[in-house]
Amino acid sequence: MKFGIIGAGMIANFHAKAIHAMEGGELHSFFGRRADAVEALVAEHGGKGYTDLDAFLSDPELEIVTIATPSGAHLEPALAAAKAGKHVICEKPLEVTPERIDQMIAACDEAGVTLSGIFNRRFNPAMAHFKEAIDAGRFGRLTLCDAYVKWWRTQAYYDSGAWRGTWALDGGGALMNQSIHLVDQLLYLAGDVVSVSGSTACLAHGGIEVEDTAVAILEFASGARGVIQGSTACWSSTGHPAEVQICGDQGSAFLADEKFRVWDFAEPAAHDEIVRAELMQGSVGKGLGANDPKAINFESHMRNFEDVVTAIREGRSPSVDGREARRAVALICAIYESARNNGAKVTL
Hints:
- With about 350 residues, this protein is an alpha/beta fold.
- The chain has helices spanning about 10-20, 35-45, 55-60, 75-85, 100-110, 125-135, 155-160, 175-190, 270-280, 300-315, 320-340, and strands at about 1-5, 25-30, 50, 65, 85-90, 115, 140-150, 195-200, 215-220, 225-230, 245-250, 250-255, 260-265, 345.
- It folds into 2 domains: about 1-120 and about 300-320, Rossmann fold (3-Layer(aba) Sandwich), CATH 3.40.50; about 125-295 and about 330-340, 2-Layer Sandwich (Dihydrodipicolinate Reductase, domain 2).
- Helix content is about 35%, strand content about 25%.
- The relative contact order is 0.16.
């Protein structure tokens, strides 16, 4: 299937690399407002370049659009793509409020096209084992389910784009931009959250509207409790790995980026040896994207794109459809609501 990319920055370049590497997809075109940026992407990756959105979307060869614009600028191109009959894959967060996401879902439903979010951390091999263990009930009664993102961003990072650190276009700070991947993983593994109490602050950066540090206490539908800690104010020479931790009365597993730090169950299973041989963290390494947003690989993006192509061809919803991608945004917005009200409990 032929892909077109909306956006001409770092993430668009990253999407192009993933599309070139994937099976079932071909890079067809780029759209961006700045002709020089579009020309640079075409020179590096090939394909057609457009600075007119209508012309880009009216190309009959184009089948799937990926959106790589700032977070709060996802809605309008998604609506235009759906109206043009193109399938839509949108970078995280799908949009910055549940209400804006609902508009995207409705438009794609009405047009009969697929809407998928990008939560590429779901597609690494360790997550498949993690989810299998959850679904098999190996943890027993879930008790504590947590996510920790203790990253660092320089002041120059926030100063590099006028949209960064704004409510309108970033949608939030350390939670909405950086921690959302771990929030998604936590919901995917531990299930729905029914209430939350949150606190946010900006402690290490200036000139931004949003938080660089946040904590939240969660109650899950299962009865389990949990914590989310998200920050871009935790300096480290190498960057701390982001962790999702699930504990129950029969097992515990702690996933640090793409490798397990803990994999321990009361009852053994056949694939435990595979996990211990191939997916255990040998030593504490650099966190993926923890200090540098460019320091990530595109393999899991590639798998995310491949899942969407396969779903379209099989006539089913992709693993991270619009409704699934909405869940993390709804939880983060509930944390922000609680924080604005001095930590008052918010029910989801």
